[in-house]
């Protein structure tokens, strides 16, 4: 079982520059103890079958540019220029 008490919590709070009153400290200590007890229970679980880790594999494909008709999309925009949407400027120049 993992040892965690009010003194430990107050030490962590001080290092984190958190201000806790007595009632908050009592509530937090109890919640953290419950959480730590639960994680301790999870450590006791045994698996019936050992599962090997899944290896992710990236699948690459050829990057091919295709010409698409975007006129139906541009027709919905309030303002366009050539084949682009016109939007308000969002960055200031220095």
Short recap of the structure:
With 94 residues, the protein is mostly helical. It is 38% helix and 4% strand.
Descriptive overview:
- The chain is mainly alpha-helical.
- It has a domain at 21-46.
- The protein is built from 3 helices and 2 strands; from the N terminus they run αααββ.
- The protein has helices spanning 6-15, 22-43, 71-74, and strands at residues 80-81, 84-85.
- A two-stranded antiparallel ribbon has the order 1-2.
- Strand 1 (80-81) and strand 2 (84-85) form a beta hairpin.
- The mean pLDDT is 89.
Using only C-alpha atoms, the radius of gyration works out to 29 Å
Shape label: flat
Show unreliable segments: none
Biggest beta sheet attributes: 2 strands, antiparallel
Largest sheet: spatial strand order: 1-2
In sequence order, what are the helices and strands, one letter per element?
HHHEE
Q: Quote the distance from N terminus to C terminus.
A: 58 Å
* Residues in helix, %: 25-40%
DSSP E strands, number = 2
- Please indicate the percent range of residues in DSSP E strands (runs of 2 or more): under 5%
| Mean pLDDT value | 89
Helix count from the secondary structure assignment:
3
Oligomer: single chain
Structural class assignment: mainly alpha
């Amino acid at each position: 079982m993992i040892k965690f008490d009010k003194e430990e919590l107050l030490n962590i709070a001080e290092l984190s520059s958190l201000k806790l009153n007595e009632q908050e400290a009592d509530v937090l200590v109890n919640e953290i103890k419950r959480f730590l007890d639960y994680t301790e229970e999870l450590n006791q679980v045994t698996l019936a079958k050992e599962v090997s880790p899944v290896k992710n594999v990236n699948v690459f494909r050829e990057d091919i540019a295709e010409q698409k008709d975007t006129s139906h999309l541009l027709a919905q925009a309030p303002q366009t220029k050539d084949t682009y949407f016109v939007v308000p400027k969002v960055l200031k120049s220095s």
